[in-house]
Amino acid sequence: MVFIAATFALLCLARVPAVLGHARVSSPPIRQPGNNFLQTCGQSSFNSVKGDPTGHIEEQEPVNAGCDLTLCRGMPFSDQPASNVQTVKPSQAMAMNIDCTVPHGGPANVSLVDTTVGGNSGAILGGFLATFDDFCPTTGPAPASQTNLQYTLPNAATIGNKCQQAGDCVVQLFWATPDFSQNYYYCVDVVMAAAAPPPPPATTAVVNPPTVAAPPATIARPPTTAPASVPTPAGVNMGAPIAAAPSAPVKMVTSAAAANAPAATNGTVFNAANANAGRRRARILWF
Ligand SMILES: *[C@@H]1O[C@H](CO)[C@@H](O)[C@H](O)[C@H]1NC(C)=O
Ligand SMILES: *[C@@H]1O[C@H](CO)[C@@H](O)[C@H](O)[C@H]1NC(C)=O
Ligand SMILES: [Cu+2]
């Protein structure tokens, strides 16, 4: 077994000198070893990951107590550069590019993992996003479905309010090779993008017109007498683009509102304050 492993390592060196590995995730960036990892897991683990960035967790033994190898090989988020965190959305299609530098075969799968719960290996959110029976197969080239691994993140209902904080969630590629009993964990840090911004006020034109369109028919007649019934249309009128309503009646509503308001109160200043309050209220409703 040692001999075989050594042979693989040599093969690996001959083919891709810069990479000592088995399955190398070339993109997006995966968790890297850093000083906090060194403190938590110990020198031997640290050296192992440094020596083989794509290696299996068994070669990282022994470790300090509290080092969870089954959660990103023990590498904490605190060591990761912020630029490595992928900002994503629920149901987003994603890809992982993989070089099968040393084929082993065996099952592998991809999942979104909440690292804040679930003990030493986190908790999978939803189901597996991709599964393979024979990953980086020992015979033949790795299929495109593995070297350019496509998957779709769980939907919003599944993710809920999790993964809002960078470091909480990772996309994990988990691969086990039955022949050598080697377990590989690769983690891509992901954070959910902020909720979509509120729609622009323009969309309210679609909502309001029914209310605006109705009054003009009744108001069209009494405009000359500065009706007392205007306050309601005035409130409605403020938020709604006036252009949407029939041209002639709208002008009357506008002027009637302006003319009527000072009469009902007693000054334009007071009225302006009222109008602003109305706009503020309307804005709150839209957002
Ligand atoms: C996921 O991958 C692991 C590691 O190879 C394997 O033990 C497990 O059976 C896989 N599960 C599924 C559902 O693919
Ligand atoms: C105008 O209205 C304000 C607010 O209701 C009131 O405080 C003020 O006394 C009024 N002024 C006049 C001249 O009516
Ligand atoms: Cu290997």
From TrEMBL:
Picking any one GO molecular function of the record gives: metal ion binding
User: Domain Chitin-binding type-4: where?
Assistant: 22-190
Which range is the signal sequence, renumbered to this chain?
1-21
Q: Which InterPro entries match?
A: Cellulose/chitin-bd_N, Starch-active_LPMO
Domain of life according to the entry = Eukaryota
Cofactors needed by this protein, per the record, are: Cu(2+)
Keyword vocabulary terms for this entry: Copper, Disulfide bond, Glycoprotein, Metal-binding, Signal
What this protein is called in its record is Chitin-binding type-4 domain-containing protein
By sequence similarity, the record places it as follows: Belongs to the polysaccharide monooxygenase AA13 family.
| Family matches, as Pfam families | LPMO_10
What species does this protein belong to? Mycena metata
